[in-house]
Write a structure and sequence with these properties.
Layout (H helix, E strand, L loop, with lengths): L1 H84 L6
């Protein structure tokens, strides 16, 4: 008699176990996705920080290049003026 009662609930138990297994699998999948997204976000953040530092260095070097261009222009103007006046160059 007890075996007949258990046989009737067998499908209920199978359904419950399958439901619990799928819930657990969804949780594990969610954790894997979260770990992957977290690592990708950390990597992107690291890249953005490095890009920011490089942009700052490029901006600093632009000022240096602009200063060198200004000095070169001044030297060119001085040479042109000296050439126009006919100033001889010392050996």
């Amino acid at each position: 008699m007890a075996l007949l009662e258990l046989a009737g609930h067998r499908m209920d138990l199978v359904t419950l176990v399958a439901g619990l297994a799928s819930i657990r699998a969804a949780g594990v999948f969610g954790q894997l996705v979260d770990a992957h997204v977290g690592m990708a976000a950390a990597a992107a953040s690291s890249v953005l920080k490095r890009l920011g530092a490089l942009d700052a260095r490029v901006a600093e070097q632009k000022h240096v290049v602009a200063d060198i261009d200004r000095r070169t222009s001044q030297m060119d103007q001085a040479i042109e003026e000296a050439t126009r006046r006919g100033v001889p160059w010392a050996p």
